[in-house]
Amino acid sequence: MLAARLLRPGRIETVEVPEPPEPLLGEALVAVRRVGICGTDHHALAGQQNFVRYPRILGHELAVDVLGIGPGVENVRVGDRCAVLPYVSCGRCAPCLRGRGNCCERIEVLGVTIDGGLCERMVLPAGLLHRGPGFSLDQLALVETLGIGWHAVARGGPVHDDSVLVLGAGPIGLAVAECARGRVAEITIADIHPARQAFASSQGFAAVPANDDLPDRLRDRGGQPTLVFDATGSRASMERAFTLVATGGTLVMIGHTTGVLTFDNPGFHARELDVRGARNALPADWTAVLDAVSTGTVDATSWINNRCTLESISDDLPELAGKPHVVLKAMVDIGGGT
After folding, report:
1. pTM of the shown model
2. pLDDT at 216 over 90
3. Which pick of 14, 79, 194, 200 has the fewest CB atoms within 10 Å?
């Protein structure tokens, strides 16, 4: 069968790989139908992803059809269409025992630390599969992005009178804004690219340039936001974010970068800021996202503005990575209908 393997930074090839084995206890054999491409994949291609190990079959935003199940599997049946939670936690470490499997000390992530879904078929722990009856393949593949946004918003603990600033109008930033919609008084998205500002505005959000005038723009709009999410992965943006939060407010870091961040300690302390990280998502976040998508409360399918195939991805991925402000969400189609 075919798979797209990232051999090393800058080199991805579509190659023939062995068929997966029969599913064992607690496992399911699935056909991969859709794979969303995100910043993690672009950073892995560039050699700038913190956790990826090479060589690696990429792909962690997945929609699949169940082809077979092993003994003991009860949550899915053959023929089910599912989204895939790509985080494999150990269930034994201290974070897992506290219900924080998203930051498991031994976590494995499909397409990052272990092989992912840019292939035709694969065997997965059945517990990672979340059924989506009536969902389109695109909707299911977008659950992972929305789950990260949902988890980040939960980490921020918004209340209705919060004013929210999202730094970065890529898929993660948009996911945060979508998942915060209706929960807070005001949402503003800032990005350096006019095309992404325009798209955020088309989705009903206030959009502003993330330039040197941003603090003045925020003051003109009524003051500094009480809840700030940084979804850029940019060191400069993450460090600057500390200065944008209102006194007594909360900063949630979703993106990550290599190296060390610095901030002004007197300002941080005087304003008693609450700074939190948001990593991955929990099964409960996925349940909430699936409910929100099923009711139409959240819809991300309008983000998809590029499609490619498993056969073309080795040529397409470098091109997609070169224009992130133009390609909002690319989807790899591997058959299986809509």
Report:
1. 0.94
2. no
3. 79
